[in-house]
Structure formats: C-alpha cells, structure tokens
Design goal:
Blueprint lengths: L7 H26 L10 H56 L4 H23 L15 E4 L7 E4 L24 E3 L2 E2 L10 E4 L2 E7 L10 E4 L4 E2 L2 E5 L4 H52 L3 H30 L6
Parallel strand pairs: 4-5
Antiparallel strand pairs: 1-2, 3-9, 5-6, 6-7, 8-9
C-alpha cells in the first residue's frame, strides 16, 4: 500500500489533535481515580515515596488496634480493683463489728461473713481478665508495642490481687490460728465434772465453779453463762489480737489496692496518649502521601474543559486545511 501524503497544514493539525487526545486521556484518568500519580511511570519519586508513607501508616494502624485492646485489658483490671476495694471496705466494717461485741455467736457469724467476702475478693481477682490476660494475677504481664522500634513499647506487670496476694488474714484456717472464737469443750449432765468445765443442759450452758459437794450435775455448783449453742456447737470469744490483725491486714490491702490502681491508671494514660499520638501520626503520613499523589479535581476539571475546547478548535482547523487541499479539484 502506497503512503498517503498529507499537506503540512493537515499534518500539523493532526499532531495537535493527537497530543490533545493524549492529554485528555491523562486528565480523564486523574478525574476517575482522583490521583495525579497512579503508577511509577507517572512520577517515580512521588509514587515510591507515597507508597512508603502509606505502608508505614498501615503498620501503625495494626499497632493501633493492639493499643486499643491493651486499654481494654487495663480497664478490666481497674474494674476488678474497684470491686475488690469495695469488698475490702465491707470486710473491714465486719471486722470492726466483731471487735465491738463479746457475743461469741455474733462473732462467729461475723467471722463467716468475713471468710465469704475473702473468697469473693479472690473470685473477682481471677475474673478480671480480658482476652486471656489478667493483670490481677501474678505472672500475667502485658506488653504493648508502639512502633517497629524494639525499645518503643511498654510492659505492664500483673499484680496478685487475690486475698492471699493481698495478705488478708484468713479466719477460716484449719488450725484456727486466726479464728475469732474458740469452740468450747462441753460435758453432758451425766459426766464427771471438774471446776471450770462447761455443761450443756436444755441448750443452756453452765460453768462449774465448785465440786466440794460432789462432781455430779445435781451436786456441783454452777453458774449460768452467756454462751449459746450455735449450729450444735458452743463457742467463746477468743478475739485476742486476731480481729485486730484482720483489720490491719484489710487496711494494708486497701493501701496496696490504691497503689495498684495508681500504677494501672498511669499505664492507662501512657497507652492512651500513645494511641492518640499514633492516630495523629497516621493522619500525617496519609496526608503526606496524598499530597504527593492526589489530583486537584478543580484543576483537572478546568484542564478537561480547556482540552475539549482545544480539541474542537483543532478539528475545525483540520477541516479548514482539508478544504484548502480540496480546492484544487475545482480546477478540473
């Protein structure tokens, strides 16, 4: 096929049309994607720099999620401390009530209440975990990463907030070393009696004071006591220093809980501040990447309008050049 010859005017207008169409294609791509840099071909420096910034922002976003979960873990521990502190205050009031009475039955009841609250303190401590991490149990530590830098992290050590960990006196020990009352050995009416023995008759507790006339129930001299039969047993007040020890242990536990709360509160503030910083840094990185790649939609829209006008003028010019070439036909 032989080459087609174009006049200089027509070729010039054709090249102008082709150039305008190329610019229009580029502008249309920017308008459709919103980016002025869509690949490394458009601008290698801006493209790879923006990609690096976006990659770091994505990495920080994943760390941001773990920071949020760490905050929830600390919150769970803090809620546990609040509940345990309330129980400790209640236990302290119970111990004080026991110290204010000499009735063995009442003291025994207070001791049982104290023991139950002690169990609840341990139960709350063990239930204060979040997603498998419990900061109120020794050995459960939490490490929060703030960036890819190895040293940019925070390790929160768990505390033992159980009753044993807080050293709260155990009034229910089998050896009775911390019991507030002691069980009294009592004898039946038909037993041989000695001075100081306790005898139970019709749920009334007597104490033998004299056996000069005889050691049987009807001959021994006895005095009525204030002791009562409780759950089939008889108890006497044996508070000595045990209730005082219990109250002191509760006071120390409350002080320890306040220290724990302060420590966790400080760690909470640190993680929260780093979370806010990371969010802002992600925005800075994303904004920086956008400035390198995003297109100005107003500018691109104006460019498209100008290119469409240029294209129309080029088409008209090509048409005029074609008419000039066709005028030679009028000679025949």
């Amino acid at each position: 096929m032989s080459n087609i010859s174009l006049t200089a005017s027509m070729r010039s207008n054709l090249l102008s049309l082709q150039s305008t169409q190329k610019l229009m294609d580029q502008t249309q791509e920017r308008l459709s994607t919103g980016n002025k840099v869509n690949s490394a071909i458009d601008n290698p420096s801006s493209y790879y720099t923006a990609q690096s910034l976006n990659n770091r922002a994505n990495d920080l976003s994943s760390l941001l999620d773990s920071m949020g979960q760490a905050i929830q873990t600390i919150k769970a521990a803090d809620e546990g401390i609040k509940s345990i502190t309330e129980f400790a205050e209640q236990a302290k009031a119970i111990a004080q009530s026991a110290a204010d009475t000499a009735d063995a039955e009442e003291i025994k009841s207070y001791m049982d209440q104290f023991a139950e609250i002690r169990k609840q303190i341990t139960s709350v401590a063990k239930d204060s975990g979040y997603k498998g991490v419990n900061l109120l149990n020794t050995g459960n530590n939490l490490t929060v990463k703030f960036s890819d830098n190895v040293n940019s992290s925070l390790t929160i050590n768990g505390e033992d907030a159980t009753a044993d960990g807080l050293a709260i006196a155990d009034v229910a020990k089998e050896d009775g070393s911390n019991a507030w009352v002691s069980e009294v050995a009592v004898k039946a009416e038909d037993a041989t009696l000695s001075v100081g023995d306790y005898v139970v008759s019709d749920d009334v507790v007597y104490k033998v004071t004299d056996v000069t006339a005889g050691t049987t129930f009807d001959k021994a001299v006895m005095e009525t006591t204030t002791l009562k039969v409780h759950d089939g047993n008889v108890y006497i007040a044996d508070k000595s220093n045990n209730i005082t020890t219990a109250m002191e242990s509760i006071s120390n536990a409350i002080t320890t809980l306040r220290t724990m709360s302060s420590k966790f509160g400080n760690n909470y503030s640190i993680v929260q501040s780093r979370e806010a910083f990371t969010e802002n840094l992600i925005n800075v990185l994303t904004e920086g990447a956008d400035k390198l790649t995003l297109a100005d939609m107003n500018e691109e829209s104006a460019n498209m309008l100008a290119l469409q006008t240029r294209q129309q003028l080029a088409i008209n010019s090509l048409s005029l050049a074609s008419q000039a070439a066709q005028s030679v036909l009028k000679l025949f």
